[in-house]
Amino acid sequence: MANALDGRASGTDSVRGGAVDLRAAAPVPLSPAEIERELASVRRPLREASTLPARFYHDPAIYRHELMTMFSKMWLCVGREEDVARPGDHLTRTVGEESVIVVRDADGRVNAFHNVCRHRGSRLLSESSGSGLRHLQCPYHAWTYGLDGALRVAPHMEDARDFDRSKFGLNRVRLERWDGFLFINFSNEGPGLMEFLGEMGTKFARYGMGGLRRGKRIDYTVATNWKMLAENYSECYHCALIHPELNRVSHYTSGETDLVNQATVGGWMDLRKDEYQTMSLTGKSNRPPFKGITADDQRRIHYYIVYPNLLLSLHPDYVMTHTIWPDGPGRSDIICEFLFDARDVARPDFDPSDAADFWDLTNRQDWRVCELTWQGTASGGYTKGRLSSLEWMVHIFDNFVADRLAGRTEPTPLERPPG
Ligand code: FES
Ligand SMILES: [Fe+2]
Hints:
Layout: E1 8-10, H1 22-25, H2 32-38, H3 55-58, H4 60-71, E2 76-80, E3 90-95, E4 98-104, E5 110-114, E6 129-130, E7 136-137, E8 144-145, E9 151-153, E10 174-178, E11 181-185, H5 193-197, H6 200-203, E12 212-222, H7 226-233, H8 239-242, H9 244-249, E13 256-260, E14 264-270, E15 300-306, E16 310-314, E17 319-326, E18 332-341, H10 342-346, H11 353-377, H12 392-405
Parallel strand pairs: 1-12
Antiparallel strand pairs: 2-11, 3-4, 3-6, 4-5, 7-8, 8-9, 10-11, 12-18, 13-14, 14-15, 15-16, 16-17, 17-18
Helix pairs in contact: 7-11, 7-12
Bound molecules: FE2/S2 (inorganic) cluster (FES) and fe (ii) ion (FE2).
């Protein structure tokens, strides 16, 4: 079986602006009034609206505000249930100062903990994934935790007065599941995952995503701001020029924007010819469409951003996901995964390359323009731009950013453009 962790690629040779020291930048939190003032032009109806101002992609204070209002407060997709299939399987994900360990314990329970020792605060695990873990031992003074988070061993602490080991287990992070995806939330406040997803939680139940298995994973590091990746995903205005292969299979003006709510924005695009079956270099697939999807689904690809870090692309015969992990204003790590029917993945002749090669090519085409855009918007020669009629979803995403930065969790109603 072709499987995970089998490709690593870099979208860039030199990363500018990455790994910003946020504490050194001493940013001042922005007030909702300041955000509203700076983003008033983003709030206009699409035909009058501007893009986010350049500062919103480059300013470390804005980046820090995004971490505080989005990545530290919202549900983040960290992977799939199959990533922690067996006791001892684990993964870590890090954004800003926050890092989470997700691990399956001996009782089969999947736990999420802050990746920080309760003694003097060392990061516990540095590897991004692994298996066979029996306990979590801090690399500093060897405090040792069970995979259930309980502190088991704390050397030389016998004399510490009123030290109750049971009160020094790892601090839990909220963890919930949706259709095979694992989500964590660093905040203990706010709605549960299904309440947050709302209509999105059941909208694609017919695809049976919980039963899918990963057939391929490709990791990228791209020298751009995370929002530029989401904005790029939100429009196909660029597709005729940048993606000739994609545009041959799915016309760049096809489709509609569909669901918009507090958790998501998305819509679909159509396959261009009746004989096309999926997004691949030939438009053909050697897999049947998913059972249970509609006749329309067999002609469509549904593209959704689940705010803030999951891009979910449902094809007739596979699901592609991108999870985005910002690492400073100008650097983003991206995990791109391809999910297939479990029976397909189990076949000895299973070959995901038609899907993976097509999207790896398309991804790299996208990463290049996202890097160029980050470089260009750093210039004093740019302040902000205007949007075309093909960028309605970009406008919705930018307004989601504006809402969150201003402290709002419900989307501000937008005037839908005619046509
Ligand atoms: S910081 Fe972890 S054991 Fe000391
Ligand atoms: Fe693209």
